[in-house]
Amino acid sequence: QVVTLAVLMYPLLRGLALQLHSALTGSYIPGTSSMAFINCLNEQIAKDIARAIMDKKLAAQVNILPKSSALYFWKGELEESTEILLIVKTRTSKIGELSNYVRSIHPFEIPEIISLPIDQGNPLYLKWIEENVPRD
């Protein structure tokens, strides 16, 4: 039972150890921040969604990338369109809330909302993300 308990506690203990190390050294814990990608139909929708995300303090920054071509399957048919892409920088702990919120305001039936954890980067920038997105 001790081994089972130790295995079950490992992720929690490792997380606490990383947070303590980060607090003492000021170093970044890989995966603490994430980038989310959200597709939008046009620039106005992209700006509206980006502003709504920022107003709710769900991100430190949202980049709005210009039109790009997209090919995808929808209801069994190959479709081609143009899209505007949002790149959202936020805390990883906010991804669930961000996704739920965007789905509630996005006009697409199934909007693209995917995220990737940030493994490494400019430590000052990563700290800035954490400082500008409130904790849960």
What does this structure look like?
The protein has 4 helices and 4 strands; from the N terminus they run H-E-H-E-E-H-E-H. The protein has about 140 residues and is an alpha+beta fold. The chain folds into 2 domains: about 1-30; about 30-130, 2-Layer Sandwich (Alpha-Beta Plaits), CATH 3.30.70. Strand 2 and strand 3 (about 75-90) form a beta hairpin. The model has no long low-confidence stretch (mean pLDDT about 90).
Poorly predicted spans: none
Number of strands: 4
Question: What is the 3D form?
Answer: globular
Structural class from helices and strands?
alpha+beta
Number of domains: 2
Distance between the termini: 33 Å
Alpha-carbon Rg, integer: 18 Å
Number of helices: 4
Give me the secondary-structure topology.
Blueprint: H1 2-25, E1 33-40, H2 43-55, E2 61-74, E3 77-91, H3 95-105, E4 113-117, H4 123-132
Antiparallel strand pairs: 1-3, 1-4, 2-3
Subunit structure: Homotrimer.
Protein name: CUTA protein
Keywords: Signal
Short summary of the structure?
It comes from Neopipo cinnamomea. This protein is an alpha+beta fold. Helices cover 43% and strands 31% of the residues.
Main attributes?
single chain, alpha+beta, Alpha-Beta Plaits, 4-stranded antiparallel beta sheet, N-reg_PII/ATP_PRibTrfase_C, N-reg_PII-like_a/b, copper ion binding, signal, Ion_tolerance_CutA
